Amino acid sequence: MDDVSYMARGSTRALCQRELDRICRLLDAVPTMLPSDTVGHGWTARAVPTTKAPDADGDVRGPVVSG
C-alpha cells in the first residue's frame, strides 16, 4: 500500500507555513507536521490527503484523516 504525503520546505517559518497552507488548500490535505527547523536544512512541514485515493483497479487505498 502506498502512503501519500506532501512536504513544504522554505528558508523561513513564514514561507514554509504559507506553502503548507497552499498545499492543504489546493490538494485537500491536512497538516501532519507544522513548520519545524529541527529536521535538515531550513524549515519543513508535512501534510496528508483528507480522503482515500483509488488505485488503478478502483480499490481505495491509503489512510483517511478526519478533522
Verbal overview:
A hairpin with a 5-residue loop joins strand 4 (53-54) and strand 5. The chain is 22% helix and 36% strand. The chain is an alpha+beta fold and 67 residues long. The strands form two sheets. Strands 1-3-2 form a three-stranded antiparallel β-sheet, with helices on one face.
Features:
67 residues; alpha+beta; two-stranded antiparallel ribbon; 1 helix
What would you say about this model in short?
The chain has 1 helix and 5 strands, in the order E-H-E-E-E-E.
Q: Give, in spatial order, the strands making up the sheet with the most strands.
A: 1-3-2
Shape: elongated
Instruction: Tell me roughly what share of residues is in helical segments.
Output: 10-25%
**Portion in strands:** 35-45%
Weakly predicted, low-confidence segments: 62-67
- Based on CA atoms alone, the radius of gyration comes out at 13 Å
Order of helices and strands: EHEEEE
Mean pLDDT: 83
Biggest beta sheet attributes: 3 strands, antiparallel
- Look at the helices and sheets and give the structural class: alpha+beta
Intertermini distance: 23 Å
Query: How many strands appear in the DSSP assignment?
Result: 5
SS element count, helices = 1
